[in-house]
Specification:
110 residues; alpha+beta; 4 helices; elongated
């Protein structure tokens, strides 16, 4: 059987809000970085203020991006088979298949 191909990429995302007046909109990604230091540096630049909710961007008093940055792992699949093989249902089925009848009974599955 051919191994299932997928890649995982670690990113730090800088975020904006679709409502820059009150901050009640959806969060959107405006930049992805491969390391936290670069993302923080970009946030601390005054040019980033155009992506912040009104009155929020103050990198001198608050150098931590906080709300404006998230850490994420992107999973990139090479095939549709890889996507379906790694779905929550498939992972659950494979895990249950490894359990003994006693373990299944203890978990209330059978």
């Amino acid at each position: 059987m051919k191994p299932i191909e997928m890649k995982t990429i670690e990113t730090w995302n800088l975020l904006s809000n679709t409502d820059l007046t009150a901050g009640r909109g959806a969060k959107i990604v405006v930049g992805r970085f491969s390391n936290k230091e670069a993302a923080t540096y970009a946030y601390q630049d005054n040019r980033f203020s155009k992506y912040c909710v009104m009155g929020y961007h103050d990198p001198i008093r608050n150098p931590n991006p906080g709300y404006n940055m998230e850490h994420e792992f992107l999973v990139i699949h090479d095939t549709a088979e890889s996507f379906w093989h790694n779905s929550e249902d498939e992972i659950r089925k494979r895990a249950i298949a490894k359990l003994s009848p006693e373990e299944l009974k203890a978990l209330g599955i059978k």
